[in-house]
Amino acid sequence: MKNKDSKKYWRSGLIIFIVMLLTFGIGVVGFSVTRLGPIIIDSSFDPEPEDLWAEYEYGCEDLKEFKVDDMNPNGTFVSEDGLFTVTVDTPSKEDGLTWSSNLPVYYAYAKGGSGGNLYIYPNGAIEDDGSSGAIFAPEVIGKEQYYDISHITFYYCLGVEELTVEKTVDTSYNREHEWSIDKSVITEKGHFLDGIPKIWLYPNGSGNETATWQVDVNYVGSDDYDHNITGTVTITNTGDTSAMITGVEDLLAGTSVDVNFGVDFPYELAVGDVLEGTYSYAPEYAVEGSNQVTVTTEVRSYDSDSVAIVWGDPVENIYETINIEDINTDPDLDSQYLGQIVAPNSDTFTYDKLYEWANYDAPGPYIYINTATITETGQFADATLKVNWQEERLTVEKTVDTSYNREHEWSIEKNVTTEKGHFLDGIPKIWLYPNGSGNETATWQVDVNYVGSEYNDHNITGTVTITNTGDTSAMITGV
Q: Whole-model pTM above 0.85?
């Protein structure tokens, strides 16, 4: 049974201890040491935990006590609830006692004789290896020896579990800028053929005109992608007892994300130790809000500060700066660099050329295809111009047809011959007699001979055909 009046005795002992400390400088080297005492308490009763807290305020208000009720004890002893374990070593009463424990001890009371010595550990200790002197029971008055330690009582706190939870939030994403490009060509006279601008060049120069090429590059906007949020979660045991961590929940803008600590839960985090985990989360877009992590132990939960999710500049600004190049099949224009544009600006590029009849020598048509390209994206636009060179060209054809008359000439002769060949006045003659002696045959002969021919009424006729096969009318001045 403990006597509450014992408090006045160990309070008197404290006064004696302080007087000795100030007078002789004994007991401790200074108040920077982790142990004070011994304070002699002349009482048959151990100090009450609540009295120690009220007097010194070291430890905790709910101070616990554990009595090792062995004389000059040696061995390991465990409290009935199994929460406190202490190992003591007392080779002899002259060598004193040393100890180590699993929980911080704030007071140790070594009983011997009619009183006891109180040792104080202001910051709590889990070990007293005797480096500042072993623990002894009070000295036997009049003798240079100590009482046996009849028992020793340890006053401890179950430990104040305290975790500090910190986290970082790092964002990253890429941004791709989008552009449009358009190309057109405009002629002074605005002529078109089949929807394509066209120039007709005439020999008199009346068709000469300028074509203006225009490239319009417009900034459309940007698309952010590859969003990622990474960071670390750091759990530090800033308490004076180990903490059994049962789980960690990381809420990122309301979404739970996994944190990789490299350990399995439940996990015991010793006093002063640090557990660090990393996380990575890839949202579909730039989520807004904050990030907070909650660490749960067997005792309570701990929240980190709420860290805002801040999206800074993109890691990559894809197509932020573009270059425009232009290729024209017109050899006079060829290829040219139009310029550079930086988002979010737009720009228009123009150039022109005068087309003249004198610069061509064949009809064509000449088709000039112009293509403008955004070098970085490969986007392009083209426009076509047709040029016709109007050439004067006549085709002359003619026919030749002839006619005449031809008169043929003949000769004709006629004669008669008789069998007897008689003539009278140069004319053949037959004399017929009654007796028939004059009968004879006369033979008539006609001779027709071709003499030749004669031409007359000659005539030549025909047509002359003149066709304009050129690209322009022709003024005929004579044939």
A: no
